[in-house]
Structure formats: C-alpha cells, structure tokens
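Try this one yourself first.
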C-alpha cells in the first residue's frame, strides 16, 4: 500500500500489515468473514464507524467489492498470502465500495 492509501484507509492499512506478518498456517486460520476482511476494513474507513450492520451494508456494496471480498476469503483460507495482499491493494484502489443510487 502506498502512503496516500495508508493515510486514507487506516483500518485497511493495519489489516494489510497484519496479513503480511501472518504465516501460511495463521493466514489459513484467519477469520475471513466479510466484516473483518479487506472489504470490511475499507468499509470501516469509508463510513468512519466501527459498528457495521451486515445486512444493510451488504445490500449497498458494489459487485466488484463483493467479488474481491470473496476472492480474499478464498485466498486466505488456502494460505495464499501474496494473492491476499494483492487483493487488499485492489480494494484500496476502488473508487468506492458502494453502489451508486
């Protein structure tokens, strides 16, 4: 993650750092639910709040963000750290996580 992304997305940057330090075994054991994955951390940065209502948020998250969240979950479960970190960077580059109205 670059400096601007780290400044704009502190939750996501912290999550990136956490994932980068995990061993393959620990990565496979990571809770990969959407609320604590890369997309969930970016949502926390975008909304600037820690309490997320799963059903409400999932209805407004755009399809690309959902796809990346699913891909992250699969890669983490399979212990593919490099792919997981790449996905975090892709999440940081999305213009928005939310569908336009």
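Now uncover the answer:
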């Amino acid at each position: 993650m670059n400096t601007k992304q780290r400044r704009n997305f502190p939750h996501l940057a912290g999550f990136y750092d956490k994932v980068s330090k995990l061993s393959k075994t620990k990565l496979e054991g990571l809770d990969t639910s959407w609320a604590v994955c890369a997309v969930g951390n970016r949502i926390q940065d975008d909304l600037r709040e820690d309490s997320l209502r799963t059903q409400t948020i999932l209805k407004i998250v755009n399809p690309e963000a959902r796809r990346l969240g699913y891909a992250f979950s699969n890669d983490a479960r399979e212990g593919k750290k490099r792919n997981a970190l790449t996905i975090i960077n892709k999440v940081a580059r999305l213009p928005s996580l939310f569908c336009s109205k």
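Discussion: The longest helix spans residues 63-77. The mean pLDDT is 77.
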